[in-house]
Design a protein that fits this description.
The structure is a single chain. The chain is an alpha+beta fold. The chain has one domain. The chain contains two helices and six strands; from the N terminus they run H-E-E-H-E-E-E-E. Strands 1, 2, 3, 4, 5 and 6 form a six-stranded antiparallel beta sheet that branches. The radius of gyration is 19 Å and the shape is globular. The two termini are 29 Å apart.
Length: 137
């Protein structure tokens, strides 16, 4: 009984974790892209194969990136336009170094009080996986 409860708790906590609603807007302008991971030679010296992964590419403010940083490298299910999908923010996994967060430029603006300010942006990639559940007939 304890084992079953533990497995269910693990599934709810780690497998079915949902992307926080407060950050849903960050994916509004997400672009679906393919990441082509270069082949790595096997231990026996034989060549590996290029791996292709679906991903979302998003330009977000540095401030928003700092808020979602703690969510990096964990898998989250999505609602809305990406329902049935899950994302994982690529942050420091060496296999995806080419897609680590990078400079997204900045935008100069003027506040309502007339003060000039700069908003720095970051380009981030999320691995995108299909997680649709099979339906029993």
């Amino acid at each position: 009984m304890g084992m079953l409860w533990g497995a269910k708790l693990w599934e709810e906590r780690y497998v079915r974790r949902m992307w926080p609603d407060e950050f849903a807007f960050l994916l509004d302008d997400a672009e679906e892209v393919d990441l082509h991971i270069p082949p790595v030679a096997h231990e026996d010296g034989s060549p590996g194969k290029t791996i292709s992964r679906k991903a979302l590419k998003v330009r977000i403010s540095q401030q928003d990136f700092e808020k979602i940083w703690p969510l990096a490298e964990a898998r989250y299910r999505l609602n809305g336009r990406f329902a049935g999908k899950a994302i994982t923010l690529i942050a420091n996994n060496p296999h995806y170094q080419k897609w680590h967060p990078s400079d997204g430029g900045s935008v100069e603006s003027v506040s309502d009080s007339g003060q000039k300010y700069t908003t720095p942006y970051v380009i981030v990639h999320f691995l995108l996986d299909d997680v649709r559940e099979p339906v029993e007939v």
